[in-house]
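STRUCTURE REQUEST FORM
Protein name: Alpha/beta hydrolase
Source organism: Microbispora bryophytorum
Requested output: structure tokens
Priority: standard
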Amino acid sequence: MTLPISAERVSTPRLTLNVLSVPGSAGDAVVFVHGNVSSSAFWHATMIAIAAEGFRPYALDLRGFGDSDPEPVDASRGVRDYSDDLLALLDHPSFEDLGPVHLVGWSLGGGVVMQAMRDRPAAVRSATLVNPVSPYGFGGTTGPDGVLTGPDGVGSGGGAANPEFVAALRAGDRSADSPVSPRTVLRATYVAAGTDLGEEEDAFVQSMLSTRIGEDHYPGDFLPSGAWPGVAPGKRGVLNTIAPTNFRIDDLHEIDPKPPILWIRGDQDMIVSDTSLFDLAHLGAIGAVPGWDGTPAQPMVTQTRTALDRYGAYREVVVAGAGHGPHLDRPAEFRAALLSHLRG
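Status: completed
Returned output:
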């Protein structure tokens, strides 16, 4: 199936970004930000659907993903390399007349949207956070307020990635022969078990394989730690942008103005969860990573709810039967919630 999607490379003072749009669409602008190990391709169907409802959708590839420039990622700034790229796109002459835009961020993209809101709230008409990374990062914290489990952020960052998955990405593995192949990971964690992605699946796998691999990209560098599990975050690459020593948004409630937020998540998400199968502490607790020393798991959903309760202007929608990408496995429910938010 050919979707009426247009791709354009837009040059900013920071880098050149690949930006998707729907020709002929009109209305309030909605900018979609994808998650880790993916690209704007994961938003195609959603873009078509909301364009038909009177909105003007855009989706960008973050640096190092899809067809955007593979500029190195300085993780010492948290996700600001990504969020500053997004804001630079909104400053481009072809976007200046859009005014404040609706931002929609999935997973890592949710963190990018939160950072953009925090740094320039007047540019945001509304925000939608789709199974977002916790405001206290991914891994290495505990409790509702994101207390570090170790001063060096042990258990998070580039060293927390599965090296076999990294190798499969590097090799361009399109098979379903391994439990860590991109296709298998897509089927098992991006969506709820048993979801049939149909003809879109190959495009999603190709999107995942567009991820640049290395210390400047995915997964990033790491440092040794004297505490279990022995790895601490570095300062380069994707996973270090959301390590709690580099990324922490605990003052979102102080911004002015406060764009309304929709927090939408799947109830079967295994990636961003209070019992995440990608959190080394939880994996240690269930015996999947040896040597566990009792380090508590990160309550990711609880942390997000705590931060949004402080923020105030938000609504939470839980999509039954959805995994990490409710726009993929429960598109009708996702679009209904999104459109209600955009119109409101």
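Reviewer notes: DSSP finds eleven helices and 14 strands in the chain. The longest strand covers residues 124-130.
Form closed.
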